[in-house]
Amino acid sequence: MDEIQSLLHGFAIALSFKNLALMFVGIILGVIIGVLPGLGGANGVAILLPLTFSMAQSPGGTTSAIILLSCIYWGALFGGAITSILFNIPGEPWSVATTFDGYPLAQQGRAGSALTAAFTSSFVGALVAVIVITFLSPIVASFALEFGPPEFFAVYLLTFCAFVGMSKEPPFKTIASMMLGFALAAVGTDPVTGALRLTFGSTALLTGFDFLVAVIGLFGIGEILLTLEEGLAFKGASAKINLRVVLDTWKELPRYWLTSIRSSAVGCFMGIVPGGATPASFMSYGVARRFSKDGNKFGTGMVEGVVAPETAAHAAGTSALLPMLTLGVPGSPTAAVLLGGLLIWGLQPGPLLFVEQKDFVWGLIASMYLGNIAGLIVVLTCVPLFAAILRIPFSVIAPIIIVICAIGSYTVHNSMFDVWMMLVFGVAGYAFKKLAYPLAPLVLAIVLGDRAEASFRQAMLVSQGEMSVFFENKLVGGMTTLALILLTWPLIAWLIAKARAR
Amino acid sequence: MSAGGGGRPAFGQKSAEIVVAALFLLLGAIVVYDSVRLGARWGSDGPQAGYFPFYIALFVCVASAVNLVVALVKKGEDRAFVEVGQLKLVLSVLVPSFIYVALIAAMGIYVASAIFVAFFMRWLGKYPWWKVAAVSIGNSVAFFLIFEMWFKVPLPKGWFERLLGLD
Fold first, then answer.
1. How many structural domains is chain B composed of?
2. Which residue of A has its CA nearest to B42?
3. Which has fewest Cβ within 10 Å: A216, A457, A468, B32?
4. Same domain, B157 and B89
5. pLDDT by residue (tens digit) across A411-452?
6. B77 and B87 assigned to the same domain
7. Does residue B3 lie in a domain region?
8. In a shared domain, residues B156 and B89
9. What is the pTM of this model?
10. Closest-CA residue in chain B for A223?
11. Do B49 and A192 touch (CB under 8 A)?
């Protein structure tokens, strides 16, 4: 069992005092970020990424940096549940489904057991996903070592076509938003020929649009503007968790083992293919409602209705790192930001990472186990503290969040232009959200644009411009075909529905 | 938010759809234009610089043209994209934010942030002045300590920091 040995080695790295301390700092920051409106996993990590530049330069520093950032991500995943249950405000999109049963539970005075159920099932979902990562990713990576440019382009194609086929948003809006991301990624210097593209003589555009700025604007400023529409005051149930409630809830939870297994499976699947945590949580809630014998009571405050979406959201959020590490294709916006971090630190995400950067990969995987345990402890013990953050009035917290976003955008390139762009992206994010243009494919396209283009051009060079290179063998042909099926899926589904109606 | 007749739609979903789709179309057209200028065909040494962006932009144009048509032909009652009251709230944050960014460029991020936070607390929150001063100044001092001292990340500074000899 090579994996076990590598994992133990990873634990040896992750268990240093410095890394453990960073883990707790990351989790606490992450929960705060997850609780605050306008700050979430993706833009929280984006804002803090520039602070790791210097950290990553010391020996072993990249491992510490990724542990810090990934723990912020786990913390944000945990934090989303707090606001959903206590305040009926999903702090993160993936915790919307948690409000359905979590908030009614809180209103019945059972906030403590709802929170315990949410945190525990988050932990279970994440644990299943980390186990999947531990054993599946070395296999995927060794498989992907054989990939050439056509195969990599086929993987990118599959990723992006999956967005069109699987997202709830209208397909043409998904395509428009995704392709806009690719166009934004193309701005600046052409990586192959060095020609200036789409800069129109502006020096500010020479370096192109940075995805970090886009993420901070789209998710941060855009989210604040959306929150504002719903008014300025938060009214919430009080959070009381004591050991008794925790133990009582834990006694109840094993009853939902089947729901947990189903939700973990849905979550892992949706995280690895780029569906993301949000659809995973909804899907899992729907499946649980259909299969549960109390299905018709869902929505009135069922613990099972909290278990299902939380397990799936955490499983999906965690397993989204699998394709990011092994193929360099992130499964969620936050994974995309982490991938951007790897690139900035000088690491090449993809199968070679498992060969050349063993310490980094296995340190990260080991930290996922530890980070989620740390996370569970932190959230169970400190819920009232985190809930108190939400009682800070909006007129105080909103400007401070905007200040943090501005600082985050500025520090990416030390450029004021980026701060202006953040505002522009913020307005765009607000409009896109309201008009059902999905943001995730846009962000992924900005991050992956250059790499997708490079693999496409290399493949084209090899084949001298023949598109048939994407069908030249079973592997690449299969992926391309699957991608095309996913791309046309909305049309196929429509035709099937039409044929059935006859 | 129903205060002051704020429930009226400021503008409708349909017009918002049309405007956004048209903007997409415009952006796509700009990218197509520049890609053609760079050369979007097959050069002697492989694809030219505009090759990839050209097809990307073509996708943007086609998809947004479809979105535009869908928005134009859509019938039925138009929902509100944003209500007047909501728009007022959104603008009450957005407009000061733009002014804030302009202030950062003019006088550095720390002073600008203190003014920004103070403005919000006083104007929207109606806090007493001593609270306003404590939070806004404390916030900037905290950020100064975190970024300049702890992480050694320099942020934009202005006359005030020079006056204190911190720049």
1. 2
2. A465
3. A468
4. yes
5. 888 889 999 999 999 999 999 988 989 888 888 888 888 888
6. no
7. no
8. yes
9. 0.86
10. B90
11. yes
